[in-house]
Amino acid sequence: MCSWVPKAQYLVFTSVYELEHEALDALKRKFSFPVYTLGPTIPYFNLGDESKVATTHSDLNYMKWLDSQPKASVLYISLGSFLSVSSAQMDEIAAGLRSSGVRFLWVGRDKASQLQEGCGDGGLVVPWCDQLKVLSHSSVGGFWSHCGWNSTLEAVFAGVPMLTFPIFWDQVPNSKKIVEDWKIGWRVKREVGWQNLVTREEISGLVKRFMDLESIEVKEMRKRAKDLEEVCRGAIAKGGSTDTNLDAFLSHISQSRRR
């Protein structure tokens, strides 16, 4: 990155300035050209448009199921689309969820039917869902995530605390940011690696504690998550950091083209 960045006319990040202001301010001091934050780059503009709501039978089923659940009672689980966890770990997750008694909605992709059998009737396993709409649903109270950046931003935007389960790459520092910097999540396992199996007993206990709405620790974590939600919504509002950066970025591009 350092070799080609000095040749750039500007840097654009898909983050929100207030979420990473220290790192962004350091970059602004280092480089003479503008640094813009235009995040969260997620489809939040579709949330209020009912015409955009998925209309297939399976999609209506999971949204209808969420509608029937108590507020903040559902743990949403999605472990990414590129590489997932081992079969042995998936079995432990399924057994742990079943034992916990916590309601859940799990995106199991091509293993959805198999996982549903292993999990029992305490939750719903689907091959796909509209993630941001799910996270924004009032019945969803937590997100077990692989910590991909888009998923992280969607959770923050929806004000949902997270159980972090990174596999590699940027997922590891994203998990650190969620747990240690923002303090809106807990780690599922202490060490990253395929060989580090988290048992069903550990999963069951962790999930029950994480979804305990009466816990003082959980209440404080949920408040921090809601505070970050307000930060994100403030950034995209008129005059917010993202709104201002977008105007400046577009102006910069227009001026460059006229030269």
Automatic annotation (TrEMBL):
Keyword annotations of the record: Coiled coil, Transferase
In terms of superkingdom, the source organism counts as: Eukaryota
Coiled coil spans: 211-238
Please give one Pfam family short name: UDPGT
A GO term, aspect molecular function: UDP-glycosyltransferase activity
Its name, as the record gives it, is UDP-glycosyltransferase 87A1
